[in-house]
Amino acid sequence: MIFSGRDMSTALVFPGQGSQSVGMGRALAEAFPAARQVFDEVDAALGEKLSELIWNGPEADLTLTRNAQPALMAVSLAALRALETEKGLDIARDIACVAGHSLGEYSALAAAGSLGIADTARLLRIRGDAMQQAVPVGKGAMAALLGADALQAAAIALEAAQGETCEVANDNGGGQVVISGAYGAVTRALDVAKAHGVRRAIMLPVSAPFHCALMQPAAEAMAAALAGVTIRAPVVPLYANVTAAPEADPEAIRRNLVAQVTGTVRWRETMLAMAQDGVSGLVEVGSGKVLSGLVKRIVDTMSATAIGSPEDVAGFALAKE
User: Fold this and answer.
1) Is there a catalytic annotation at residue 211?
2) Which among 145, 169, 188, 283 could disulfide-bond with 180, CB atoms 3.0 to 4.6 Å apart, if both were Cys?
3) What is the pLDDT of residues 230-269, one digit of tens each?
4) For the purposes of burial, counting CB atoms within 10 Å of the CB of 221, is it exposed (0-12), middle (13-18) or buried (19 or more)?
5) What is the pTM of this model?
6) Nearest to 104 by CA among 192, 13, 4, 203
7) Active-site choice (19, 51, 76, 102)
8) Residues 79/82/83/85 CA torsion (nearest 10 deg)
9) Can 196 be counted among the known catalytic residues?
10) Which residues of the chain form beta strands (DSSP E)?
11) How far apart are the first and last CA of the chain?
12) What is the pLDDT of residues 127-148, one digit of tens each?
């Protein structure tokens, strides 16, 4: 990915839960002092060695929402710091905008200078705990509808609800929509989806029904937590999950982060909006390649690359004028 001056056609995006893996970010920390510093800062903010869990597992503990959320942010910011120190990347100069999928929105805000890393880590720990505690284990569920669009998924969720909560949680694009809600309603939605001709409907191995109305207690917890944190204007616009539109006002960002807990992650619309606004290249920063893979099924003309290892950093070229 070559930059020349301020490139108004390139966006940075940050992955969400599900992209975690034991060992992620270790090579970055070993190769780049600036990356290691991010993990140290997150450990200090949380008062524990989260980095040891990230690098050594066990996987079951890393997958817990309270750990996965700050862990993925740490890896994303470590990769970003490596790009900044090794390749001279300057977001304010070189990047058009940022976005992140669900918890990745917090990573994007930290990357764009709206939140400090320590505050972001603490907020994500609160967010993870609150989302897990909002619904008792076994009472909620999520399912992926493959081969469905958002309107079709919303109709399926409505038919399956039967007085219970069942809503579209993630419109990921490329024929992948996730629904969320009460266990019984989501289970019924699998049969409804088949009746509607959806190619495949599968339950997801998650511990809580994220991004639906059942998360309202978590939204209230985040409203309280965010009220005590300084949010600065990002150096480039952030495309918010709940609006699929660029935002730079700190108070609007604060409101959107609260709404995001119960709202739909409008990722497909976000990618389309970026493309309409002139973005033609995407750089996914952090663990995995989920988002760079998805965008190719949403905007086939948009280039995409993922930066998550020292080799990826080495291959990233920044041409300065």
Assistant:
1) yes
2) 169
3) 999 999 999 999 999 999 999 999 999 999 999 999 999 9
4) buried
5) 0.95
6) 13
7) 102
8) 160
9) no
10) 10-14, 97-100, 140-146, 166-173, 176-182, 200-203, 238-239, 246-247, 281-285, 303-307
11) 15
12) 999 999 999 989 999 999 999 9
